[in-house]
Amino acid sequence: MSLALNELLCLITVLKSGWEPLSIMAPFQSKSDSFSGFLSLLEFSRRWCVLNDGNFNYYESDKIATPNGGLKMREIVCLAVSPPETHGYDHSFEIYSDAERLYLFGTDNPETMREWVKSIAKSFIPACAEDLLQKDFERIGRLRYKDPLNLESSKVGWFCLVASTLHVCLEDGHGQETIHLQKLLELSRDNEVLVLVERGRTLYIEGERKLDFYGWASAIERAAGSSGDTLSQQQLTEADIPVIVERCIHYITQYGLTSEGIYRKSGVNSKIAALLEAFRRDARSVWLKEGEQQVDDVSNVLKRFFRDIEEGLFSQQAHNWLTVSDESRRISQYQLLFNNLPRVNKATLRTLVNHLYCVQRFSEMNQMNLHNLAIVFGPTLFQTDGKDYNAGRVVEDLIQHYITIFHVNEQQLKTQLDEITYIIKLRDNLNPKTGPASGDFICTVYLEEKKETAEQHVKIPAAMTAAELTFEILDRRKITVKEKDYWCCFEVNEKEEIERPLHYQERVLPILHSLGTDSHLLVKKNYSMEAMLVYLASKVDVTKHGMLKFREEKSLLGLTTGSFNDRYFMLNQTSFRLYKDVRSNRAEKEWPVKCLKVYQGIKKKLRPPTWYLCCDTQTEMREWFATFLSIQHAGLLWPAEWVKSRAASRSAPLDTRLGNVSLIPLRGTENEMRNSVAAFTADPLSVSLIRQSA
What we know:
Residues 32-125 form the PH domain. This protein is α+β, with helices and mostly antiparallel strands.
């Protein structure tokens, strides 16, 4: 078969130490490994090109036997299909060579391009990866990679990108493996290394050649993000639930189930919009924390997400749900409609209704019964203006008959509700009631050690950070901070013999609300900080792995414990994983790093979930601890510049205020002094300060 020259226009640009433009036009011939035809330059001149027996050559014309240049198929490392009209043509593709050259081809004939792509790929993909050729790929080629259990040497793998799925044939693997990029726990780029973290495994892709590595990295990052406005195009969890939905529901379950009017009250529009935009930009990088986000803001983010999602939660079947009217058959019809939903819509609907069922089970505290939830979520989920009564009726039916419609295991549901009840009781026991009407919380903070002479009674505003509290205490005692004095605020539990340095950006008030009767806040020097900063500065990649002694609390109530065992641990940007030994390829357990609180010391007993890790030396413990802190706080362990600027500002004359409390004026009329003393005796904080100073 021979095609007319105007059926294929191929633009080739060669990149080597700058751009050397060269465009070509080439027709396709029937022989699978042989091509010939004219190619045109960027200025629309043409070259006669031949692809035959693994060699690609181009000539001035079909009458000249000496080629102008060429490319061997074994030199190709990557073939990429470009989006439409990327290079001025309806269809185009790119070829990358191991000599750092890029060839760009463009054509207006899709069939011709597919034949070219298929034949070129077949000519350089080895037999061990030939299954990849069956995919409708966007990019295919060779890359080097490292396994986290052997970071010393890299291996060769063949990769194929199809939509949001990366198909991989690894050198040490068995057959083809699949990585769902939208379900990654983490995706990060460090210089010329791309880190892909999925549940149970981490893969490091290396940039052996900058040109094709950046192409791969950009393509994978695009594929791993939200690719559209429908549910299935969002970043997903392993259970096919959008990350934004899972994290909002988890946060509200932890902190909002007892919030009166949850889902009915409005949040702050600017905060809702900012949080929603952050989720849309990269949902997996957004972690919701108490004190940083408010419950009503998060609940409104969830509602707005469902209201705005393209095609809605019920997909194109929304009308069918709204028109179910036969009361005797309603449940069975809902079951049928649910089973016909797309996979992601099914998982998301089941998760949301489960959450709403739990919300209404605690309606005596949150005042959100079945009817109230239906009023809120009917128009939201069906994206109506609120005038369609059927929308609320459907949501009410789904919640009321949740167990039947979704075939729920009642024992598992009971366990879930028991766990939520336990969380609520635990928070009630640990959250002391605030006294001052201003909303500030008065607490006792100790300086260097817990004793009466070291007490400082401090009023804690909602926005106060650990660094601000630390320097508030130092200012009161007029302690000068020297260059390498790393003063920190610690959460200390004397009974458990453990402590945790608060991160300098951490809000203090949520910590106070979570402290038990055996815990207190202590300001002292962190003698490990300098060593941790030096250790982290010496590392290119903030990860750590090694053997540790491990024990886990087994039961929800912490009544039974396991024994200590040697286990291999891997800590990366997203997860903390436990392996049976260094040779294991799959993790036995895995925890999100962002959700862990890490304490140092001797841990006797603490409410679950709890994991005990023992190090052989203090240096080893310090390195593990530094790695945890660096990952959890994006490498920001110490506010060096902030401390310097604060020290400079302290050189100014002191104000006539101690903390937030005005001092008694030394001059003035008798009435002025009497009023000042009356104000002081009415303020419990002021009284405490006066007694202490006396």
